[in-house]
Amino acid sequence: MQIVQAAVPPGGGGNPPVPPLGGAPAPGAHPQPYAAQHPGAPGGLQPQHPGAPAGQPHPGAPAGQPQPSHPGAPAQQPPHPGPPSAGQSQHPGPAWGSGMPRDTTGHIPLPPGGPVAVPAPAPVELGTGSATLAVLLIGPAGAGKTTVARHWARSRRVPTAHISLDDVREWVCSGFADPQAGWNEHSEAQYRLARRTCGFAARNFLANGISCILDDAVFPDRPVVGLGGWKRHVGPGLLPVVLLPGLEIVLERNAERSGNRRLSDEEVASIHGRMAGWYGSGLPIIDNSKYDVETTARVLDDVLARSIASPPSW
């Protein structure tokens, strides 16, 4: 259907007939241009309203709204909005609750930490290589757990974190329940809290591709400070290794300590004797009595490589 609207030439003496809106041209007829219908008119289209200059809006049209210059032309689009006023962001981010995950820091999503799975086996001759691991280094006071764990973490070729349970326990400044003053409900509660915090940190490190080694004096005959809690907080992929030098070495290293990290000789001997219960447990044990820190860390890496190939039952 084609609607043709004729314009009245200036000075005309009447309105030309207008086809009805619902009308259609006769069969075989072809619509004629405006100039053909009205002799004397220029070849181009004329304004729809007599007396209105070309490009002017329809009289009575709302001000500020551009009108099409000829029938059928699309209406002009509004101009591009100007720059935002002061205080408005040019790139507003998504609002919280509109689909953005809650576990985000800025625009970097953080995967939630889950239980650590058993790592894939690595060639023994290459040590642990680039495997992502969760390791628990066990030993009495003076065994060198913290020093060896830190050295092993720093010497790996892949990102590796070190977490010492004693360091985390001492985050409590006021009201710290020192186990040396006696093991009671307060010291046990703070120990459990520190262990849970270490496990939470280890799981988040591993969820982001960073290995983690933890150290703690875990006793084989005390379930409250046993392996069960560590397995529960970290996951079944945790690899425990016992560091157990001779009593003479432990006493010598303990004497070099200061502050609340130094224990009495009697207490050191008692702890060392209870740690001997790990023999026969199935866990790998390293006697580092004659090893320096670097050698012990290298032996630890070899032991962990074998543990990955054949995980210990614990």
From TrEMBL:
Region of interest: Disordered: 1-121
Biased composition (Pro residues): 68-84, 109-121
Matches recorded under SUPFAM superfamilies: P-loop containing nucleoside triphosphate hydrolases
UniProt feature coiled coil, ranges: none
Compositionally skewed regions (Low complexity) per UniProt: 23-67
Pfam families: AAA_33 (PF13671)
Gene3D superfamilies, alphabetized: P-loop containing nucleotide triphosphate hydrolases
Name of the protein this chain belongs to: AAA family ATPase
Taxonomic classification: Bacteria, Bacillati, Actinomycetota, Actinomycetes, Kitasatosporales
